[in-house]
Design goal:
about 170 residues; 3 helices; DNA ligase D 3'-phosphoesterase domain-containing protein; LigD_PE_domain
Length: about 170
């Protein structure tokens, strides 16, 4: 999945202790990951909690199935969205900031080019927590909740409930 000249992103819906969305960005050969309990919102006014979690191997980007062990949290996983992204993070002098450095600094802005998610998004660390916010752009749409409107995997076409039943 990483043969692209641009880095990949994946959003996996994971039914572990609680249902949540794992937003993962390819950075320096691994998937940097945030657990987003309520999933991404297309409304720029909505700030979603994004809990920074452990890095995952790039191969994990295409994983779908049911974890029966606790390594990544037991439960069903589907690839809810996937694609590539462009780093948009700039410093005060308008110079592009490397994604790994941007994460270290606590602010990363990316342009997603996915099946479901498109447009600019910002990850911002505040008081130890992270927030995921849709940037106001042509792809922002406060009237649409993609987590409800588009529940199926972009790989298998299964819902999280159908994957859990396999």
């Amino acid at each position: 999945m990483s043969g692209s000249p641009r880095p990949i992103f994946v959003v996996q819906l994971h039914d572990a202790r609680r249902l949540h969305y794992d937003v993962r960005l390819e950075v320096d050969g691994v998937l940097k990951s945030w657990a987003v309990p309520r999933g991404p919102s297309l409304d720029p006014v909505v700030k979603r909690l994004a809990v920074f979690t452990s890095d995952h191997d790039l191969e994990y980007a295409s994983y779908e199935g049911v974890h029966r062990d606790a390594q990544y949290g037991s439960g069903a996983v589907i690839v809810w969205d996937a694609g590539v992204y462009t780093n948009l993070t700039r410093d005060d002098r308008r110079q592009l900031v490397d994604p790994a450095e941007a994460i270290e600094r606590g602010h990363l802005k990316v342009q997603l080019h996915g099946v479901k998610l498109n447009g600019a998004w910002a990850f911002t660390r505040t008081n130890g927590d992270w927030l995921l916010v849709k940037v106001k752009d042509a792809d922002a749409d406060p009237g649409v909740d993609l987590t409800v409107a588009e529940p199926r995997s972009v790989l298998s076409g299964l819902t999280i409930e159908e994957m859990a039943a396999t």
